[in-house]
Structure formats: structure tokens, C-alpha cells
């Protein structure tokens, strides 16, 4: 829990007006406004249809505890507070458009009360400052100012904002305007009575790290708080305060990093991998590794120590990191590019810290880079199937590997790196036996993702230019090519399957079905899994679609050649095919030639 914080329950009117001079500021380079129509709809319904509404909690950083005019940074809650302010703006405009003469005399005092308070909510009294300041990202603050200009509370200084009505902030404002379009004053008053009395919890902390720890402990269910946002805010503040860069220059430089890594989750991974990759440096050194939990604290120390170094070094290293997260868009040798794609498919992300070190410090050794990536693919195939080393140990293994390489960088080579990695991972000659047994066993139930990867790599080794297929293409986040069980998984199969597999012996079929169903010899890949499904074997072999395209085991895949050549499918066929595929798998993913000679 954060060490220094205050918690206050406030209603939605007093949030903005209790301290007439307080401003709510979304850090200039925090994420942009992302709520959509469904969010606005839920927000409006919750606020206006419930007599007592609780808006949740917001987390604010107050670095001006003794100031009478504090700027409170909104760290968690910007989507809700921005949306609330846009609703207020829409109501303010609607009130101004109502003919006051049509309002009953006894209601006019309420009309004046609400109009005055809405103006206080949106703008600091007798000031040219708006109550809320949005981030600069995606022109959010410019668009917000234009909306305030439209309702008469702000004189726009930006004459180039011609397209702001096509962007999300104005769409939200227009959404609320449409909701209020036919409302008379009585209806508006009812809405404001409900909205103004809604409650939220305001939590003030004194630093970015306190905000992050508090957010984590609250397990908030809103938009996830990004460590990147907090680190970026701290970094920009230091750069500007120390007169190293002005706001615009800092932002333009940081945009280079965003262009390389545009996803918030990947940005956070990059910050972790960067820290762990270069923690041996004098500018960075820290005994503990970076994790999601301590990332803010580590970077605050790093920024305090040398903000100029970390700012520009992060931007520089993001160019390298892009090669790992988007290899298809990077200028790499084709073999290295394919190796990184394979590494991503087999979930080799824990090695990124080491690769960041290798690609940054040994830029001219492309052959070494390619060989190491190829080896890492094999390493992760084996690790994920035998579940060793444990996932919790991987980060430290690669950190230790970096230290070993840095201590011996004059003699760095493929054999040295591999030997050190295997030593740190506590692999010995028996690991190939364990790997073989896992492949021979029920590989699908052990790890279906590894099973699919292995099958795809076997198939890809037999591709030519003429028969190449993208086995990793997806539609709606699902692979087009999926694992197909030749003997169906259904435990209650067609009697013809029982007749073929065990000559009609149902109890025997149930036992052998459990034994063989998930073995590699019973698995293939297909783009028509749902079509083949529980079909009989002879139907699966020669199936065609409505256009007479071959979609069964006669589709030309190497993996299906042996299956298509069989007239029946029995335990004997599965055993024979398993032996063949196990041998191919061991050959493709062996660490070295000597390993295969050690097999019993």
C-alpha cells in the first residue's frame, strides 16, 4: 500500500468546486481518451437512472500539499473524469439554449444556481484556466478546449482545429448533447440533482510510485494503469525542470519510441527487459531485477540519477526491441527474421532481455545473432514441453547470462553462450531423454501449443516455393490451421470407428482410445478441423468441399502423406507414425549432434 495518502469521499459537484482554485491535470503524455459509445451509454445510464450513484475511486498525485491552488494529476480515473466533464459541458450548452422565459418563475432560481455551478465545475472563476486539462496525446487537450469554445467558456487559441469534430472527444460530447436534445428544464434539473449528488472516493498520494502501488493493491477494474505512463511523466518532468528539453522537444523525441513500440503492454515489457539487459552498467546498476511490481521504483531512481542518459538510451534501444516484436517490418536477414518469428510463436519473450543486450552490443555479428536465435527456439520448445527450468527462474537465468557474456565479451561466441545458458539452466545430457519421452507420450494433453508448433515446423521443413502455406495466419485471433485428431477425440464414436480400431471390441476401444488419442502419431494440422471433426477415416482421407477442393488428408501436406496412404487407422498405424515424427522432432530440435547419440 502507498505510504503517504489521504482518502476523501466527495460528491460530484464538490469534486470540482470545493476548492475553487484546484485544477485536475492528466499528465501531458499519458494515454489518450479511449472510451466508446457503449462506455458512454453505461456511464450516462448509471449516473442518471440511479438515485445514489457511486463512481468508484480516482487516484491523484498532489505534489503541492501546501499550496492553495494545487494541480492534481489524475493517475487513475481519467476516462471517467473526462466523460463527466463532457456531460457537464453538454448540460451547460443545453441550459443556455433553453428559453428562460419558458421556465416557471419559481424554477428560475434553480436555473441560475445550476448554470453558475456548471461554469465553476468547468472553469476556474475569474480565470482563463479550465478546471480540467487533458493530455496532449491524440490532440486531446486541443479538442477539449475547442469543445469549451463551442459552449462559450473558452476562447480558442488554435485556429487549425478544423477536424476535431471527427475525433472521439467531440463524439462523446455530441452523444450527450443528443441525449439532452429534447429535455426541458425540469428534466435537466432532475438529471443534475442526481449527477451532482453522486459519490466517488478521491485518493491523493505524493508520488508516482505511491500511485502505482496503490493502484495494484486496490486491484482496480477500470482501464489498467500503465507503468509506462508514470515513468514517462516522471522523466518528462525531470527533463523540463532541469532545462534539458522543453515539452515539445521531449514529446517529439519520445514519439520515436512510440513508433517502434506502440502497444502499452509491450512498452512495459520493454522497460523491464531494458532494465534487466543493462543493469550491469554504472548508470543503471541495481542488485534486484526489474519486475512489474518494482518497475516504477527502479526507474524513479534511474531518472533521478541521470535522466538524460535513460531518456535517450531508451529511445535508441527501442529501435532494437522493435526487431523482436515486429520482425516482419524490420530490416533483418531473412534467416534471423524467421528465427525471431519462430521465437515469438513458441513464447520465447523471456529471452528478449538477452537479445536486447546481444543485438545492441554485438551489432556486427549477424551470424552469431542468427545462430543464437535458432538455438533459443529449440531451448523454449524443450522448456515448454518438459516444464524446466521453471518460468519463475527464466528472467534471472538470462540476466546471469548477460553478466557472464559481459565479463567475457572479448571471447564471445556461439559455443560460449550456449554452454553458459545450459549451465545456468542446469541442463545435463539426460534432458534429451526427458524431451523424447514427452514427445512420445500424450503430447497434446501435455502442451497443445508446443504440439502445434512442432507439427508446423515439421511441415515447414518440407515446404517448397510451390507448396508454401502460412500455417500461422489467423482469423478473429484464432489460427486458420489447427490440430486435427485423426482418431476423433469423441469418446462415443461411430461404431465403424470401433470396428476399424479394435475390431468391434468397445471396452478395448475405450482403453486404447485413451492411450493413443493425444499421441503425436494421431495428430496432424488442417484448415478444416470443424468439417472433418468426427468423420469416418475413409471420409477424412478423400474429403472435398463444394468446389471440389481437397480438404481431407489428400491435401498435399507432408504430415498427411502417410495418413492418406493408409486404408485403415489402428494403434499400429499410430505407433509407426509416432516413431517417425518423434525422430523428425528430435532432429529438428536437438541442441547438438552429440545429443542424439546419447539416446538409449
TrEMBL record:
Protein name, entry field: DUF262 domain-containing protein
Boundaries of every GmrSD restriction endonucleases C-terminal domain copy: 433-583
Stored PANTHER family: DUF262 DOMAIN-CONTAINING PROTEIN, SLL5132 PROTEIN
Coiled-coil stretches: none
Lineage: Archaea, Methanobacteriati, Methanobacteriota, Stenosarchaea group, Methanomicrobia
Domain GmrSD restriction endonucleases N-terminal: 14-236
InterPro entries: GmrSD_C, GmrSD_N
